């Protein structure tokens, strides 16, 4: 009886002899939630933007709705913004801090970003030679600190008709960028259209920031200046 029971059990359960391996149980494959490669975080390019009120936000437009933040969302950046309203390459503004000082205080101690954007000149109503010197010193500082970081310079942003002194300041910044082999983007003559300027006549509306962001995304792509990632 015992031998017959064993035979019946083996027929049902698929017992194998010692020299003939039976079927290997198949385990359920890991689900997507259990796949460590699929769940590993994707590294977004780190982009730092140093600028004035156009970057930091002004009026009803907060920092996270500025053109820089909108461009970051479009291109999938990890964004760090620095600087303050009223500041420039030379002008310290109410915060008493030029772009160079803001760079030293807010950015220089951080790990190297993939892209650094310096955006300003709007508040630098002074001798173009001073602006040139300050812009070039900041570029040298940034490249010395982060030699592998891509750098882009954006000239003065003016949503309406600019004052007569602005083109000379724009040119001074452009020369500094050129001498440091840096991409220079010039938004000065770009038409921003109706509804782009706040009632103060200077700063962008939400719509203005959206148009600025679209311009920046296009300009970075045209110059091949997007960060890798």
Q: How do the helices and strands follow one another from N- to C-terminus?
A: HHEHHEHEHEHEH
Helix count? 8
**Overall pLDDT confidence:** 87
Q: Alpha-carbon distance between the termini?
A: 72 Å
Beta-strand share of residues: 5-15%
CATH architectural grouping: 3-Layer(aba) Sandwich
How much is the radius of gyration in Å? 29 Å
Helix share bin:
25-40%
The CATH topology label is Rossmann fold
Secondary-structure topology with pairs:
Elements: H1 2-13, H2 36-39, E1 46-51, H3 53-56, H4 67-75, E2 78-83, H5 99-107, E3 115-119, H6 128-145, E4 150-154, H7 166-179, E5 183-185, H8 206-222
Parallel strand pairs: 1-2, 1-3, 3-4, 4-5
What does this structure look like?
- By secondary structure, the chain is α/β, with parallel strands linked by helices.
- The chain is built from 8 helices and 5 strands; from the N terminus they run ααβααβαβαβαβα.
- The chain has a 5-stranded parallel beta sheet, with helices on both faces.
- Helix 7 links the parallel strand 4 and strand 5.
- Helix 4 (67-75) crosses helix 8 and helix 6 (128-145) packs parallel to helix 7.
- The relative contact order is 0.14.
- Mean pLDDT is 87; it is low at 1-21.
Q: Short description, anyone?
A:
By secondary structure, this protein is of the alpha/beta class. It contains eight helices and five strands, in the order ααβααβαβαβαβα.
Task: Based on the model shown, name its key terms.
Rossmann fold, 38% helix, alpha/beta, 5-stranded parallel β-sheet, disordered N terminus, 229 residues
């Amino acid at each position: 009886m015992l031998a017959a029971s064993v035979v019946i059990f083996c027929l049902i359960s698929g017992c194998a002899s010692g020299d003939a391996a039976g079927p290997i149980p198949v385990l359920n494959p890991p689900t997507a939630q259990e796949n460590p490669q699929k769940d590993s975080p994707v590294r977004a390019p780190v982009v730092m933007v140093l600028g004035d009120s156009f970057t930091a936000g002004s009026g009803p437009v907060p920092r996270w709705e500025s053109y820089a933040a909108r461009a970051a969302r479009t291109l999938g950046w990890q964004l760090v913004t620095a600087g303050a309203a009223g500041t420039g390459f030379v002008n310290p503004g109410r915060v008493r801090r030029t772009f160079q000082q803001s760079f030293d205080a807010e950015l220089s101690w951080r790990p190297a970003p993939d892209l650094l954007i310096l955006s300003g000149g709007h508040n630098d109503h002074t001798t173009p030679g001073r602006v040139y010197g300050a812009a070039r010193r900041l570029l040298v500082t940034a490249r010395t600190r982060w030699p592998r970081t891509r750098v882009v310079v954006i000239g003065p942003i003016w949503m309406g008709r600019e004052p007569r002194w602005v083109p000379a300041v724009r040119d001074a910044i452009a020369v500094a960028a050129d001498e440091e082999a840096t991409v220079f983007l010039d938004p000065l003559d770009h038409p921003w259209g109706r509804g782009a300027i706040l009632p103060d006549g200077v700063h962008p509306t939400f719509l203005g920031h959206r148009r600025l962001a679209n311009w920046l995304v296009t300009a970075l792509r045209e110059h091949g200046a997007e960060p890798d990632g």
